[in-house]
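ARCHIVE CARD
Drawer: 12
Card no.: 0347
Subject: one protein chain, sequence and derived structure
Cross-reference: see card 0346
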Amino acid sequence: MSTRLHRRFLGPLWPVPAAEGGKIFENISLSPLAIRSLHHLMSAPGRWRAGPLFGHVADDTLQIHVAAPGSDRHSLYGVLEGNAAYQLGWADALHGLGLTHLDWVGTWLMSPNNLLPSYTDAEFWLHQGAKTSLFDDQTVLLACGLQEQRHEFDAYRLIDDRVIVIPTQH
């Protein structure tokens, strides 16, 4: 098995076919499970938090099925980086459950006060993550938080160093 997350942390484990170019997506859909997980993750405010997203592209929609918790909230890892072994464990577990169509598709992000991160916040974190190849044209930053007492989700990705907002359905 060699998911995008495995290649991110471990490099190529064996020869992989040449990329045909990633699947293009113009929309994002969040599963009920991912939404429930993200609501639950808002119960621990106090610092910036982030974690991996797993899903797949169907037609022109990135379908996010799993929003995994970030690693230890008191860890020494950066907000976006997380613990490689922990995140790889999630990828391995999903594969072991037969969910081989799910791959790492990005990172969710929550602010210390649980308010929806702004476009400026998202832009900052996208560019920070791009420095370590966390974000590219095939991965998203899903900003999560409260806006007017409602849970909201804004999705962003980088294309040619430009921040692109992606419509999100939930």
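Annotation on reverse: The longest helix spans residues 84-96. Strands lie at 27-30, 49-58, 61-67, 103-115, 140-147, 150-159, 162-166, 168-169.
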